[in-house]
Write a structure and sequence with these properties.
Blueprint: E1 3-10, E2 14-16, H1 23-26, H2 34-41, E3 44-50, H3 51-60, E4 72-75, E5 88-91, H4 95-106, E6 110-114, H5 117-125, E7 131-137, E8 145-146, E9 157-164, E10 170-176
Parallel strand pairs: 1-6, 1-7, 3-4, 3-6, 4-5
Antiparallel strand pairs: 2-8, 7-10, 9-10
Length: about 190
């Protein structure tokens, strides 16, 4: 079981533009990534996301929720509606408590930190993120939402695997190494 940040980024390190849009990614389509994604999601037992990612899914309509009844935590201080039929907990919470709950709910499967670089960074800063599955898309934005805005300093990673796609996108699968800040993981504040 691992806690994984599975995400697509531009070549210059952004996961969304300044307006939280991902048009640069959507124009590729998902056909070339589908089998790869299906294998990944089959191993996911719980999901954690931020309010921007959840808001994007709400804006796309009910068909955008493709996670069925997978237990999901949405970390936010805003009042957001739940999606009918989904198992979603919405609210502000300490990432260590959310991680413990998500890990328990996932059983022997993985916890997926979806989208939200800020949420993934909080998991990384608390020493709770094990892997980053980063698909780099061949486009530059110049500015936008950063991939992983950690605050605890440099993190060493080990490259486990690469996967190339016909569009020129490439997935890099990294294992995160422990940092000196990890011994303070339980001191993480609310999200």
């Amino acid at each position: 079981m691992s806690t994984q940040y599975y995400v697509a980024s531009t070549a210059d390190g952004f996961i969304a533009d300044e307006d939280d849009r991902i048009d640069w990614l959507l124009r590729l389509g998902f056909e070339e990534f589908q089998a790869h994604y299906d294998a990944f999601i089959a191993e996911v037992g719980a999901i954690v996301m931020g309010s921007r990612t959840y808001g994007f899914l709400l804006g796309e309509g009910p068909s955008a929720w493709t996670y069925g009844d997978t237990p999901t935590w949405v970390l936010t201080t805003r009042d957001l509606p739940a999606i009918e039929g989904a198992r979603i907990s919405i609210g502000a919470a300490d990432v260590t408590m959310v991680h413990a709950a998500a890990t328990a709910a996932a059983g022997d499967k993985n916890v997926w930190v979806v989208g939200g670089g800020d949420v993934a960074a909080q998991f990384a800063d608390a020493g709770l993120l094990d892997e980053v599955h980063l698909t780099i898309v061949p486009v530059f934005l110049g500015r936008g939402r950063r991939l992983l805005p950690i605050t605890t300093g440099a993190r060493d990673v080990t490259l486990d695997r690469t996967t190339s796609f016909p569009s020129g996108a490439i997935e890099l699968r990294y294992a995160l190494q422990a940092s000196q800040g990890d011994e303070h993981a339980n001191e993480s504040g609310p999200v």
